[in-house]
Amino acid sequence: MELLRYVPVGIIVVLAAAQLLPKKIGEENKKIALDLPGATLATVGLMALVYGLSKAPTLTWSSAEVWSLLVAVLSCLFCLFSTRDELSNHLCHFRYLR
Question: What is the C-alpha to C-alpha distance for residues 81 and 30, in angstroms, rounded to an integer?
Fold first, then answer.
């Protein structure tokens, strides 16, 4: 339940970022599009990875909860990499990972 108190804060931060992020130089009147699907997939994937790795010592590596979290990480990464060609405003350009 402790996690639920951070959800409103996250929603406020996302809404404020959409309104307050600086605009690109020379494009003062255009709004910057955010990569919300990429940010959501990256956040959920990293959160599941950290939570799964932190629970693994107490629940053991053979528990279903740990493996389901690791499967969630892999599915988030798969979705993040498979949707990167459809977006024009990437969260991270994957050419830097080569």
Answer: 28
Angstrom distance (rounded) from CA 91 to CA 88 = 10
Arithmetic mean of pLDDT over the chain: 78
E strand segments, the chain: none
Q: Which residue do the tokens 């996690």 mark?
A: 3
Angstrom CA distances, 21 to 28, 36, 66, 72, stand at: 12, 14, 37, 30
Distances from the Cα of 53 to the Cα of 4, 40, 65, 96, angstroms? 21, 20, 11, 26
Which DSSP letter does residue 3 get? Answer: G
Q: How far is 7 from 15, CA to CA, in rounded Å? A: 12
pLDDT band for position 95 (cuts 50, 70, 90): low
Res. 4: pLDDT tops 80: no
